[in-house]
Structure prediction request, 66 residues.
Amino acid sequence: MQVIINGETQFYDAPLTIAALLEQSGLANKRIAVELNESIVPKSQHANTLITEGDKIEIIHAIGGG
Prediction:
């Protein structure tokens, strides 16, 4: 399965959830926002949202400042 994550093509053996993708990427429990095909996916839906062939994902890290 081919998906685009932050502008880079990535390959996975099978469909997976956003939560599984974040776990594999070492981003679980980080302050991030996830956009799937130009729509923000609430954190409460990460475990239920399936990523499929051709999806475009943007992962944005929250950065604190003052």
